[in-house]
Amino acid sequence: xxxxxxxxxxxxxxxxxxxxxxxxxxxxxxxxxxxxxxxxxxxxxxxxxxxxxxxxxxxxxxxxxxxxxxxxxxxxxxxxxxxxxxxxxxxxxxxxxxxxxxxxxxxxxxxxxxxxxxxxxxxxxxxxxxxxxxxxxxxxxxxxxxxxxxxxxxxxxxxxxxxxxxxxxxxxxxxxxxxxxxxxxxxxxxxxxxxxxxxxxxxxxxxxxxxxxxxxxxxxxxxxxxxxxxxxxxxxxxxxxxxxxxxxxxxxxxxxxxxxxxxxxxxxxxxxxxxxxxxxxxxxxxxxxxxxxxxxxxxxx
Amino acid sequence: xxxxxxxxxxxxxxxxxxxxxxxxxxxxxxxxxxxxxxxxxxxxxxxxxxxxxxxxxxxxxxxxxxxxxxxxxxxxxxxxxxxxxxxxxxxxxxxxxxxxxxxxxxxxxxxxxxxxxxxxxxxxxxxxxxxxxxxxxxxxxxxxxxxxxxxxxxxxxxxxxxxxxxxxxxxxxxxxxxxxxxxxxxxxxxxxxxxxxxxxxxxxxxxxxxxxxxxxxxxxxxxxxxxxxxxxxxxxxxxxxxxxxxxxxxxx
Amino acid sequence: xxxxxxxxxxxxxxxxxxxxxxxxxxxxxxxxxxxxxxxxxxxxxxxxxxxxxxxxxxxxxxxxxxxxxxxxxxxxxxxxxxxxxxxxxxxxxxxxxxxxxxxxxxxxxxxxxxxxxxxxxxxxxxxxxxxxxxxxxxxxxxxxxxxxxxxxxxxxxxxxxxxxxxxxxxxxxxxxxxxxxxxxxxxxxxxxxxxxxxxxxxxxxxxxxxxxxxxxxxxxxxxxxxxxxxxxxxxxxxxxxxxxxxxxxxxxxxxxxxxxxxxxxxxxxxxxxxxx
Lengths: 301, 252, 276
Hints:
The complex is a heterotrimer of chains A (301), B (252) and C (276).
Chain A: H1 2-9, H2 16-32, H3 35-52, H4 54-57, H5 90-126, H6 128-143, H7 146-157, H8 161-188, H9 191-198, H10 203-239, H11 251-258, H12 267-294
Chain B: E1 4-14, E2 19-30, E3 35-39, H1 46-53, E4 59-66, E5 69-70, H2 77-80, E6 83-86, H3 100-111, H4 116-126, H5 143-155, E7 161-165, H6 173-190, E8 193-198, H7 201-207, E9 210-215, E10 218-224, H8 225-229, H9 236-244, H10 246-249
Parallel strand pairs in B: 3-8, 3-9, 6-7, 7-8
Antiparallel strand pairs in B: 1-2, 1-4, 4-5, 9-10
Helix pairs in contact in B: 3-4, 5-6
Chain C: E1 4-15, E2 18-30, E3 34-38, H1 45-52, E4 60-63, E5 66-69, E6 72-73, H2 79-85, E7 90-93, H3 97-100, H4 107-118, H5 123-136, H6 142-147, H7 155-167, E8 173-177, H8 185-202, E9 205-210, H9 213-219, E10 222-227, E11 230-236, H10 246-253
Parallel strand pairs in C: 3-9, 3-10, 7-8, 8-9
Antiparallel strand pairs in C: 1-2, 1-4, 1-5, 5-6, 10-11
Helix pairs in contact in C: 4-5, 5-7, 7-8
């Protein structure tokens, strides 16, 4: 163990890999000191583990109906979180539903930030009319409220999980473009970019290899902080019946279904609500912690 | 024929509401293997001339020729292998998220040169850094060590001309001495041509054969090194710069 | 008469990499004279200056056997007492005026603020006094500078304004941390002679912190040379050329001189015994 940490902390690494791992280790040490961030990380990791092992963990089938056991309250034998109006076990539905939530988060995370980063760095690096055109397009997307735009897109393309993800991605890239552009503008005029230009590097190499690494931390922070919002929009679309279709156990759709029984059988809507709340909180705490670790303005001192 | 010829160069920046002329009709010529110094106070346009040569500042008039050829508007790969620059602030001129290895191998990758590993190790040894520094990040190095890396980077493409923009003004006096010695050694070994900018007359005097004094973007006076040592300057401004030089303070 | 005496001052910082000792046992005494502290980056000269004003923020800590200013124990003084001392009796001029002046306030307003709040002067009296202070640092058109914004001033002008502001309450001790390093050489000499003149005529104590041995020798009576948090040599400024310590000698010799030989500059030997 101590030889591993020594290897990671070696001030003169012997290879590229050791240098990179050493830096990651230092970041981890800094993150570890932030208790709230560790809690956030724990929640996010728990979500991933639950999603991976959902079929094993779920005590009941999330879709099979059992009308004799409808609307059982929490802490009933065999149904710790109760059952819904079709007699389905809420715990099992939440566990299996975590897969849908994670699926949406992952798909959004690999599309919107990447696209936004590309648009922002290109606009910031070239400036002039390219910047004008790209940023005005960004402004147009920013001008619409997110949920309304997502609703309109889903209404056009038809409901379903893929279309919901697409709609969320299309509505959430503009902030990343703005963050990346602002970062690019400060980096663009620095001496190290001038130096690599002087060595004959082309625009693609400069943007990809030299500017993007500088924008990445702020975008990653922004993504983790935005994930709570993504979960909520996905849940909102599900609630309105425009996202994942029944009988799939999507958390937002579950709240929607429980709405009718909110006063007498409160658990049907509350349990998925708590799940959404916990996961959103986890991402927010993690994002805040990452800001302290990754933000170039804080590190170095 | 001179290696670097600058004729009647003007550089104009378009600021928000007005145009700022940073360099006004400056001409100079530097022979091959010569070391030429530009000296002046802040705002004298001395650094802007270096940036204009590299295409980092907008030229509004005049011509720059390298070995008789006017520099192309888009400085191509040929230019990069001929002219390189060392910047003033070693804390700002190295990419903070790239290892020294990445910084030094980048020019090789751009120009498709072979033997990356051997060349990077040789470059580090040449500037007096241990090869163990290869995979460190810039923030793990001191200011003097960073400037050595920046010099190594500038020499990766084996250029004949090195533009030096106040290479030691951000360094401590003892580190400055080591860096100046290194630059002089490299110039002798490789037959480099220096065009060096500094606000410190003593540094310029130590490094350069000929000196051009600048003020407010214009050339004031050109003098050879011998004339500087004997205080044989013709203009008042050059004389006042000479008198104010920290080097003179102790004599008084 | 001793104005400030410091005995065995330590400044330490707790960092991720362990405890860093920036100042390790510095002692000196200062009368109404001009004391220079010289050293390279990391020598602890700036931290020493800040420690006198107790301006070290956590994770930094100050420890000293004795730190007395004009009969008042600085180590025992509360934050309230320190605030009363700072600015009024001990003033500090920093390196770059760009960062010490408030960018969204006119120069005159900043000069008059202290006068009106601290000394309770009327607007008219405060204005007169501020103009007088600007005139004292040889600003030719004080009325115009009073109305200017900080970004409209050149570096030399900004530093003169800072000096004027610091000297208005007539402090007994002025700590100047690299006051001219951000300025051009011709302006540097001018600002320094203004500072020198004011300190002399008002009989203040001056601690002049700089990396430039020659500058310090020119403008001070006594010089402390610091290296790695310790004072390695103390000597009268006029005897600087006769310095004995290898570090001081190294610092003097490694500077190029106009008309000097073209041989390699002597480098500092950092492996010698004294450098540990």
